[in-house]
Design a protein that fits this description.
With about 375 residues, this protein is α/β, with parallel strands linked by helices. It contains six helices and 18 strands. The chain has a nine-stranded mixed sheet, covered by helices on one side. It has a nine-stranded mixed sheet with strand order 2-3-5-7-9-11-13-15-17. The longest helix is centred in the C-terminal third of the chain and has 17 residues, at about 335-350. The chain is globular and about 60 Å long. Residues about 1-10 have low confidence and may be disordered.
């Protein structure tokens, strides 16, 4: 006899279940709102297991500058109480925690780069904790490559008046599967700019959440993704405004090409009753390059107070602008080159937010290679 799996009743973002114990979360059937776009079966053990036994790829780095340290520790007090099954699985399965610390008042002109290179093997869980001290100013780039089936949590704490540019790159091999949760806690008058890049992997599902620990916090979440044939790239955000006079901005852009290429963007902003003076905006734009690709885009605002400085959202999905192509081609540019110029222009704003020339060039080359593959 087949038992019908029913979706649970809807709840607001402030009421969702939270637990460190994976057994507290019901079996995922795929009808739940937070999972309805995700190809559940392709997540494999990340969605069905109660514990992951594989060895997670570790972070590698060159010589670290003064004021920055990276070490593995047995445990650290978590700022992320999981509100989905995979995040709880990552918490319970991680053998240790990679602790990245930036001392207070440290100011660095060059980015600190860490690389995680997977070598395959059984599914694994991982935890990374980033602590940025008061008045520090730093850029951290976390790049992920290779083969892996990985559930991981990254927790980032910014001290008061700290400034962090945080770049995460998912450029996995073709068969990789990742479900990741990045959580930011932003201190008083602190500012974080997160640039999330997703290119490689079979299924990559990334959830980013933000909470504020003091007035004047500022969070900007930027995303760049390019899905090729058969890829599923999913990005979700929850910006939780619970403190007065804080700001957030979310801007994600994606391109898709090839049969069954699928991207998902779900942006949630919660403005609690105490968060007067909040200013927030979120926007998602998708560019579909070929037939057979699909982009789902869902912006949401949940507002519990009428005293906000501003709140809004927007979403747009479409194909090439024929007028842009005509304008370029009328000046002697071939159609294929015109298409490349349009796509480069579409991504230029986000690429230029990455404070690393080497990474900007690498991403530009990767986008060019994908366009050439499709004959654009």
């Amino acid at each position: 006899m087949t038992t019908e799996v029913k979706a649970p009743p809807p709840s607001t973002k402030s009421q969702v279940q939270r637990s460190f114990d994976v057994s507290d979360f019901p079996r995922v059937g795929g009808l739940e709102e937070e999972w309805r776009f995700t190809p559940i079966k392709r997540l494999g053990d990340l969605i069905t297991a109660t514990c992951l036994t594989g060895t997670a790829p570790s972070w590698k780095h060159a010589t670290l500058p003064p004021g920055v340290s990276v070490k593995d520790v047995e445990t650290v007090e978590s700022i992320l109480t999981p509100f989905d099954r995979v995040s709880a699985l990552a918490y319970g399965s991680a053998a240790d925690v990679t602790l990245i610390e930036v001392d207070a008042e440290t100011s660095l002109n060059e980015p600190v780069v860490l690389v995680r290179e997977g070598e395959g093997g059984p599914a694994a869980g991982a935890r990374t904790f980033v602590k940025v001290g008061n008045f520090a100013k730093v850029t951290l780039i976390l790049s992920q490559t290779g083969a892996a089936t990985l559930a991981d949590n990254i927790e980032v704490v910014l001290g008061d008046s700290a400034q962090l540019t945080f770049v995460t790159v998912a450029d996995w091999d073709a068969g990789a599967v990742q479900a990741q949760h990045v959580k930011f806690r932003v201190g008083r008058d602190a500012r974080v700019q997160h640039v999330q890049v997703s290119l490689g992997g079979d299924v990559v599902r990334q959830f980013t959440s933000v909470e504020y620990a003091g007035r004047g916090g500022d969070a900007e979440l930027w995303g760049l993704y390019f899905a090729d044939a058969g890829q599923h790239l999913e990005h979700r955000q929850l910006v939780d405004h619970g403190v007065p006079d804080c700001r957030s901005y979310v801007g994600y852009r994606g391109a898709l090409q090839g049969k069954s290429a699928h991207t998902v963007w779900v942006g949630d902003v919660l403005i609690r009753a105490a968060a007067t003076g909040t200013e927030t905006y979120e926007i998602n734009r998708n560019l579909i390059l070929t037939d057979g690709a699909r982009a789902d885009s869902v912006p949401n605002l949940e507002i519990e107070t009428g005293e906000v400085a501003g709140a809004g959202h927007a979403s747009a999905t479409g194909r090439f602008d024929d007028e842009q192509l005509f304008y370029l081609m009328s000046r002697g540019i071939t159609e294929s080159e015109a298409r490349r110029l349009v796509v480069r222009g579409f991504f230029a704003e986000l690429i230029n937010k990455i404070p690393s020339e080497e990474l900007r060039e690498r991403l530009g080359d990767a986008i060019e290679a994908r366009l050439a593959k499709a004959g654009a």
